[in-house]
Design goal:
The chain is of the alpha+beta class. Helices cover about 35% and strands about 20% of the residues. It is built from 12 helices and 13 strands. The strands form 2 sheets. It has an 8-stranded mixed β-sheet with strand order 2-3-11-8-13-6-5-4. It is an enzyme of class 1 (oxidoreductase).
Length: about 350
């Protein structure tokens, strides 16, 4: 452990340099994120026990079990409509496994910056800050490895000297995949109803272990907090995200046109609706804008599982008429990238409305 402390400075990405450079160049009346800030209320997300959906016991077919599953699905559908976010317990992802992941993340992010940024490490998936940032409003004070699941077990994915990281990541990905699939099927079933049970069970089309992602995040302590984002406001460009976070806090989401802070729960995973699920649900489920606020004293770790289809998979709809034209995940990703280059921000779903709205 002392070696980590000694190498801490060498491990940090040059986030401070980016901040100061943007501050010098920013001027132009662009205020840092914290200017004019108001008090943010801390709220507890809806808390839902997934135990009755994750079980494989012989009691699944009993009346009480069916009623419990229906109640659980209803609670998630309501939270997805009203919040776009909720917490789940009874998810089957053991605390010991998540603690092992947290320890491996610490080892990974303590590597020298040059090693982390080296092409090939974890499939070349390292990213830090916000390379396209033109103001402090666009800067993220964080670093991450955004790893395609298909590469975790592949021979071409270099884990360097962290050989034990591969197995832990695979276990976490498998466990979170079961959670994401279980939640997605239940939410789809709430909209499709019983006579479309087969379609709900196959939802979402085009998603499997080769198309999803696991993202390991670290938010270093920031000397410029609270005037800096750990992660800039955004929505997720997937069907569903399953998040494991530590107890530091910092996650905020938009609720009733105001930012609210999410109170961490030690035994819960956070689930949030992505853009694709909002489109598929004809806007019944909400992909909500969220962000991470930097912390002046403590670093924060999290791990996110993104339920994504293949690039050529059509997103589809739960029923016609849909407000959105037909599009594939690949089209959506390309449009988001073009929007960011052209306007400096993600436009997202409004670009795919059948009747375009002014932007």
């Amino acid at each position: 452990m002392p070696a980590f402390t000694e190498s801490r400075a060498a491990a940090e990405p040059p986030l401070a340099e980016s901040y100061l450079d943007l501050l010098r160049r920013g001027g132009g009346g662009i205020a840092p994120p914290g200017e004019g800030r108001v008090a943010v209320q801390e709220r507890e997300l809806p808390l839902i026990d997934l135990g009755c959906l994750m079980t494989t016991s012989g009691q699944q077919g009993s009346r009480s079990a069916r009623e419990a599953r229906a109640a659980c699905a209803y609670a998630m559908a309501r939270a997805a409509s009203e919040w776009g976010f909720f917490q789940v317990t009874g998810h089957g992802v053991g605390r010991a496994l998540l603690e092992r992941l947290r320890a491996e993340q610490a080892r990974l992010f303590r590597l020298p910056f040059e090693t982390k940024a080296r092409a090939g490490l974890l499939n070349g998936s390292y990213r830090w800050g916000a390379p396209t940032a033109t103001s402090l409003r666009h800067l993220s004070w964080s670093e991450a490895f955004h790893v395609p699941l298909a590469s975790i077990s592949g021979s071409g994915c270099d884990f360097g000297e962290l050989g034990s990281l591969r197995g832990v990541m695979q276990e976490v990905a498998d466990a979170m995949s079961r959670v994401a699939k279980t939640v997605a099927v239940a939410l789809a079933g709430s909209l499709l109803q019983g006579h479309h049970a087969a379609a709900a069970a196959a939802f979402p089309a085009g998603c499997d272990e080769t198309t999803c992602f696991l993202r390991l995040n670290r938010y270093p302590a920031c000397p410029f907090a609270p005037d800096t984002f750990g992660l800039v406001p955004h929505t997720d460009s997937d069907f569903l995200t399953v998040l494991c976070q530590d107890q530091v806090g910092g996650l905020q989401l938009m609720k009733d046109a105001r930012w609210v802070a999410v109170k961490p729960h030690p035994d819960a995973l956070i689930v949030n609706i992505g853009d694709l699920f909002q489109a598929w649900s004809n806007n019944r489920y909400k992909s909500v804008e969220h962000k991470v606020v930097a912390n002046a004293k403590a670093e924060r770790f999290s791990a996110a599982y993104f339920l994504c289809p293949s690039y050529d998979s059509p997103v589809g709809t739960c029923g016609e008429p849909s407000p959105y034209r037909s599009f594939t995940f690949g089209e959506y990703r390309r449009m988001v990238q073009e929007d960011v280059k052209r306007t400096g921000r993600k436009i997202g779903l409004p670009s795919f409305l059948k009747q375009q709205q002014p932007q």
